[in-house]
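TA notes. Do not distribute before section.
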Amino acid sequence: MKRFSHPIAGGVLLASLLVPVTSAAADPEPRPRRTPPVREFGNGPERNSAASPGRELAAQLKARGAGAHYGHARTEGYPRQTKLPEPPVNPDDKSIKLGLTPYHAIAPKLNALQKASDRVSVEVIGRTHQGRDMYLVTVTAPESRAEAARQERMREKIENEPAKAARDPQIKRSYKAPLFVNGNIHGNEWEGTDAALRVIERLATAKDAATAELLGSTRLYFNVTANPDGRVDGVRANAAGFDLNRDFVTASQPETRAMRQVMIDTQPLVMIDLHGYVNGTLIEPTTPPHGQNYEYDLFIRNTYANGLNMEAAIKALGYTPDEDGVQPPQIPFRDWDEGWDDWPPIFTPQYAPFHGAVASSTVEIPLRVNNADYTDLPVAELRRRSKINTAVAEAAIGATASFVAQRRTALIADQIEVFRRGAAGERQRPAPSGWVPGFGPEDVYTTRFPRAYVIPAGTRQRSAAAAARLVDHLIANDVRVTRAARGFTLGGTAYPAGSYIVDMHQPKRGLANVMLEAGGDITDKVDAMYDISGWSHALLWGATVTPVATGDLRGVPVREVKTAAPTGYVAPTGDLALRLDDAKDVTALNALLDAGVKATWAADGTAVVPASARAAARTVADRYGVRFERAAAKGTAPLRKPRVAAAASSDDAFALQEMGFDVTAVDTAALNAGFDWSGVDVLYVSSGLNHAQLNERARTALGAFLARGGVVGRGSTGASFNSAAGLLTATPVAGRADANGVVAVSNGGGAVTSRAPGASFVYSPRWFTGLGPEVAVEQRYAAQGPLISGHWRPDADGTGGQNAAAGQAAVIRGVDERGAAVVLFGTEPLFRDHPKGMFAQVARSLYWSAVTAGQRRPTG
């Protein structure tokens, strides 16, 4: 029997929650390094086989007649109580088997707590892919409207006037420290939700002085379940198949956009993200490499201190390996060499610092209850494990609340300092060796911020629609963007009026830079990376973005931008040419084709729209911000929207549908069951289709399709299908499996990559050799050192590195002897819905395959 009490139990004073804070500087032990354990969840190369959230949610709630709201009246007092709609009981909710709280029971519980306590407020912050409500619970002492308005003014001053805020005694004395707890972002890592509910209930009802003191000086924000769809279904991803904890710099999913807005609005000093399962409990901070855009000296000091604090609280529970199967907690920064880094800003705790969190941690609770264990273990064992996991997560929350309460003044000062450095344009301050125990040269990662980024207007802009999308995305992330009222010169270069400027003297410069910089090649710094190593909105989103190292912005007349300017245009006379350079161009074309417009395909990958459809073109130009220029020539072939059968990863399918394609999901089993190919023009292959496993009937039907249809393949599955089906003559060569990042490419100017950007994205890169006479090369890796940013080492035998890929074919196309029009990608043009400037390459491949299929020679 367990001899240790719960950290938050009925009748126990909140003093038990406020465990002593451990100082990182007080830890005398050097940092021993251990090899990290193998992680069982999918982060590797085999991946899953910007609108304003406030406006988005308001429209959703209005449509269903709900009164819940979020993102409005930040000065409204507390409690801000909402009668939540209560979902019907779902006996199939996967939480039930574990003895945990099913989704349908959360709203009734929160409604009851709001009724019982004026400390608890609940708001709906978003709706999931399947339409379930997401709940933000705020626990704090009651505030009048005037008091809430005063808190909001202080919050704004901290961000917008940090130098003044640093001298403001009222902020030091009375600003309520925000703490953000995020639970259950991975749907089958359940217990963070139940731990949060226990803490909320305890704080709502406790009568002791410690609770009153905590809630008088703190606001605790709980995103009770960040992934309701995954929680119900017992899966890691959301219902669209996305790992939400990889989505923050892209924000493709409504759940991510809701979390992003909470962080912008609450500006947390500290956040923790509750996950599972690593035994012993894993508590960040992380190993190198560290994100180079953080004010890391402030971040590591606070995050390590809270990590030690959480470790002490979890140890105090008394669980042991022998009695409970629970190993002691581990802190990667202290205990590992590498392999659990905070380099990419795709994870919640790595994104939160850009909004002011000066301590931010993932916590991986210990005992596995998902996947095969969920299916195979007895219910009693699963519930025993879940009970321990809930207690561990609860202890982590309690220790973090203690940390915030006891270090409130210092944490506020550090958040102010983050914003002050950004607004002043100061250089980063690298932490010296020994800054916290174990901190050494291997932990120092910094960058040099440019004076500004310019997103030029006019003919210097690659795609006006892409530029507008990027500007809106920056603004949605709370990055400040201005627009020049007239032409100007900066850094020796002249830019036209209407150009956008991202002044890097701003509080959230780290977030601006992490999106707009090219990134860094960290190949030589570490061997193991946890996830992606390179990304760049400037290089991958299809817009032209120019970094300006130095210059004086004082003479540039600008105005602040709330939303990007309209970019749609339709030539007043003649037939119209729509260049398919961007995903928005593709979406607009598919909308026209759906409306019955008779467009044609030109050899350079342009769609020609007849003058008779000018009114329809104006409609889509206004809706999607695309440009219809006057056509210089007629198209060469009638064009219709390709009907696509997709054996695809979730993100590939999502991006295809996002561009307006009609997609029918297929896999090996579907083809073996007798798939009807009559309604298909192109087969897209990136996951789930094994040609060797097709039965005779399926192969015969597929063969008949290939005599008239097209194929677009990506990655190892696409390349393997091409070889097995005997399509293009090409030998695929695999690079190192975990290599990934932004690469420089040269484009061949054909129908697929004409006018494509000079950069692409790779993960487990591939290239093609031994090309037959029917094959044309659309894109090659750059001839020298193709990696711009990321991590790409050779394999142990010296093969598979970026030098081996240099100059090799990355994208090829051709028509095989049967007439199948095939395009193969060795790059990752749709990866996690992120590299939006690459999307059009896939769309053009689909159109080209559809109009070319049946021919026996490569064409333009």
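Switch to the second chain here.
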Amino acid sequence: MDYHFFKESPFKTLISFHKLIETLEGIAATNVDYRSNYAKALLKEIEPFPQFRTGIEDFNLIHNNETLIKYLLADLFPTALTNNEIKAVTIPFQNFTFNYSERFKKILHNAGATFDMAIRDFDGNQFYILNCILILNTFYNQHFDFNKPLFYDIPDANGIMKHYRILYNADFMEIIPTDKAITLTPEDIDLLMDNYDNIDLWKEKFPNESWILKGFGIVSLFDASIESAISNLKSNLLKSENERADSNQNFETIFRSIFKISDLKIGLIIYNEEDEKFVKPPYDDKKIGSFILNDLPEADCKNALFGCSLENILEQNKPFVISNVKKFATTPGNEKLGEHFLKLNIQSCILAPVIKNDKLLGIIELVSAKPRELNSINANNLDLILPYLVDTLERYKNDMQHQIEAIIQREYTTIHPSIYWKFRREAQKYFQTNNPNKDYIFKEIAFKEVYPLYGQIDIKGSSEHRNETVKEDLRKQLKTLLEIFESLKSNTNLVLLEQRKFELQSFFTELNSPLKADTEQQIQRYIETEIHPILNNSKMDNECQVLVENYFKKLDEKTGMFYHSRKKFDNAMSIINKKLASILDKKQVEAQNIYPHYYERFKTDGVEHNLYIGASIAPTKVFDSMYLHNLRLWQLQTLCEMELEHHLLKSSLPYELDVTSLILVFSSPITIRFRMDEKRFDVDGTYNARYEVVKKRIDKANIKGTKERITQKEKITIVYSHNQEETEYLNYIKFLQFKKILEPTIEQFEVEELQGVSGLRAIRVKVINYNKEQITEKYSYQDLLDELN
């Protein structure tokens, strides 16, 4: 016989029937003959087993005398109730039982020989502490209330998990201290009262086997499957998405317990009122899906597949029950839905609307592979479940709306984390007004006395490259069309063909000149309206037909034009921008550790960034100019890293592009203000606007007195105004030269005057590049395309 005891206990347990024997001795001494004779006979039967009174330590004695023990306990286990009561002898809280009622025996038999009966969610620490509480209440006359319900989860013959509430009767037990028992003071009891989870404290005050538990208990179970299943359902629905990892399996187990159907499966579809569509919940394959939609991500409410069935649910707001799908499918109008379910081996089902305030939130799907298992009678069990599903689906819809709004804010109106606190403070003031619906004037968000840092890596000659690739594609397309027209032999008017050939040739010649703003659009419109109709409607021989088919295959689906060279250029631009932006974003996270500062980054024909640092952005931290200098050095190092990254990319790009790098130094603090109308930050004030003017024009400026641009490929240009800025950056450059990041040669020059701005100077220095072997090993073009997509 296999007994499952917890290893540690404050009790040394002695199974004893001494209280029952004493009761029998009292009955034997009475004058009621039949009772007295019965008691005397039973006492004589147990006389050879003194352990029944003194205490049984060898539990094989119980196993070997099951019949005698059954007679001894007959008054407590009446035969007339044995098929009704779920009852056995036990030691409280231990997984040890014997002398089962017939109903209890049948339940365990149906569970299977391998079933191990254990109390749900009950571990050794809980067992130890509950026994200590039993001592406190019994021996020390305390009144500690521990009403947490205990359950056995036992499967039935069909594999449906049943839940049984456990009740204990301890009338036939007594608790006796040993010489190892510690006498508790009121202070000890108060300490235990405040430290339920401190198992070491409980073991200190109640050492292992320091008390004797003598006697036996009686455990009675009652079937609380529905109540327990609903409680579990509520617990599951209240869990977060991260905690609800196996929700589908848990829900199915819960629903099977309620409906008593072993193969019951559940699904769910959400009703999107705005689009009048049913959609799947946004869970992965391991979680809840939908039997109605199956492989479809969504479906219109009046989808022809479902006929009138879903329309009835929408109109009547009542469960739609199909107890026999085969029979249902034979009724005119139900064929498509019936066949749809039969393909999924669904023989009976309930489709129940989940409704809140007369609005449909979704449909819960209950299905079975057996006909008539689900029907209009057990559909009433949904009344127990739907209230909790209503709250859950409503919460899900609200959460989804909040997440959508968060995505919109993050992707379209970003507020950087470093300044989020100020927006949140203003929003909280609005929220806490007595009447948040009244006209509320939002305070402008501004940060004063902040130091700006601007930097960019720009694609060198991007406009010229773009124009050249456009011209190249147009030339190829026009040349291909001219070849087709040369070989076109049909009944088409020859004069018209010659006219079109002349016009195509004119466009081809025009492309030898600089590209005008509307040239591409003119050629595209001409080809679509004048040339393509001829190619589509003309009769032609096989050879010409092949040329035309190959031509149309080369057209881009979106533009209807050749998009070969331009695609290589666009891909190269995207790869460069994505790679450099990812470096900047990653390094920026580290830079926030220097001092919290505002950061924004833009992808144009390259990557630009603005940084603003100052005490007003992080008012809880002390600001010092040291943080500004640290951030400037970080910016210079980061641009060096981005330059090196581009150099490693260049030979693997589909279209070779060079980049130029620039830093603008501005040592005077400025004010930035959030523009409510544009939902972005901008500099504030006339003087501060000078900084913006320089930012927009500086990268196109020349060295004073020359036609040479201040920016050059593979070099970083640092533009500044004051001598102290020059000294500061020359020190940074010297440090990076020592680190073998920058080359020894330093160029210094004046910058030509810009409109309204003069006196700018610049430092230019080249970044040390890796050798060719290292470059070609680092990237492949396919890797870049995969990353881009």
